Amino acid sequence: xxxxxGLLGKIAIIVTILAGVLALTKWGRYVxxxxxYSIIRYWPKIPRETMRIVVQYHSCWWxxxxxxxxxxxxxxxxxxxxxxxxxxxxxxxxxxxxxxIVGYVMTRHSREDIYGDYPIPPYFKTKAAVxxxxxxxxxxxxxxxxxxxxxxxxxxNRHRINKIIFMSDAKKKRE
Length: 175
Fold this sequence. Notes:
The protein contains three helices and ten strands.
């Protein structure tokens, strides 16, 4: 029993001396700080990917209008969103990539058929309505608008959906 304690004491002395020598060198201080800070630092569990977004078929449209007396385009779409994380997700921002335009987003309540700034519960599917006003218009009446949308959640994760087609509602008026 004394031999084990004597051996452990010698190992402790050697480790202490090596740690002291390493602490005196620049590299040793760097390693020590990395090890120590990784032990004592709080590591929050922030998910990198929180949702999946799918465009609802035939629900994306745009039409010409006016804003402040000048011609503008109103762009509207309904999308299905699934929260794939363990956290409640809030969509903080939606934007069109090019031209860079920030829009409005409203998510459907998890239990009622009302839209607003509601969080999406974990592993839950809901709908979101997006609206943009583009001034001056970038399409002629009757043309398709094809854009990339970027959604940002409360963790600042960016979720991009490529080449969403918004149909002009001028075709619906003619039919």
